[in-house]
Design brief:
Elements (H helix, E strand, L loop, with lengths): L5 E6 L5 H14 L4 E5 L5 H11 L9 H25 L3 E5 L2 H11 L4 H12 L6 E6 L2 H12 L11 H17 L4 E5 L4 H16 L5
Parallel strand pairs: 1-3, 1-4, 2-3, 4-5
Helix pairs in contact: 1-8, 2-3, 3-5, 4-5, 4-7
The structure holds thymidine-5'-phosphate.
């Protein structure tokens, strides 16, 4: 049995990740692949509890940046071993809405924790499980914020309520990671139309993971 491919999508608020992931999963399924979609934090029963604590629960408001980091890592450690690895092993392709780069960028660069320490913790959490391809949807912060607010109404989660400078750091952080690992990352201009972005992503799939668009 050939191992599945592991594809992750990254980007800041309002970059169109959810829409493009849906389209990507549909495109792969049409071509006969067995596909599993995951999202982070969450994706396992324990991970969903962590998601609520991190994003919405009253009890999460007092979390330190360090605790936040470790909770994201715990959610991911669970997801990798209980869901992602078993799926890849049986030939399923996994399309992930965020993975370890989110932690490097949001907790390391955004929250100002030591980036090397964050990378170490990430590496411990995921073990050998690294993405074959990471699609980074890059968008200027202003456009991203107005898209995110339009999509979620006026309700912001705890991360979305950060100031604009935070999201500038997130964008820069992602671009830096992409420059450090160009063989894994594909940076896509997310300011284009939804269809143009999809076409661009399909072309990356064609070149980088051998999915024929014919
Ligand atoms: P999303 O469901 O819109 O992707 O939101 C998830 C939020 O959690 C988003 O604001 C980014 C944040 N996040 C982190 O701060 N660190 C992480 O490791 C992950 C996976 C997400």
């Amino acid at each position: 049995m050939q191992r599945g491919k592991f594809i992750t999508f990254e980007g800041s608020e309002g970059c169109g990740k959810s829409t493009q992931i849906q389209r990507c999963v549909a495109m792969l399924e049409t071509r006969g692949f067995d596909v599993l979609q995951t999202r982070e934090p969450g994706g396992t029963p324990a991970g969903e509890k962590i998601r609520n604590l991190l994003q919405f629960d009253e009890e999460g408001t007092d979390l330190t940046h360090e605790s936040e980091l470790l909770l994201f890592a715990a959610s991911r450690a669970q997801l990798v071993r209980r869901v992602i690895e078993p799926a890849l092993d049986k030939g399923t392709w996994v399309v992930a809405d965020r993975f370890l780069d989110s932690t490097t960028v949001y907790q390391g660069v955004g929250r100002g924790l030591n980036v090397d320490a964050v990378k170490e913790i990430n590496s411990f959490a995921v073990g050998e499980t690294m993405p074959d391809l990471t699609i980074l949807l890059d968008l200027d912060v202003k456009t991203g914020h107005s898209r995110a607010v339009a999509a979620s109404g006026s309700v912001e989660d705890r991360m979305e309520s950060n100031p604009m400078e935070f999201f500038e750091k997130i964008r820069e952080g992602y671009l830096r990671l992409a420059a450090e690992a160009p063989e894994r990352f594909a940076v896509i201009d997310a300011s284009a139309t939804i269809d143009e972005v999809t076409t661009e992503i399909e072309s990356v799939f064609n070149k980088r993971v051998g999915v024929s668009m014919g």
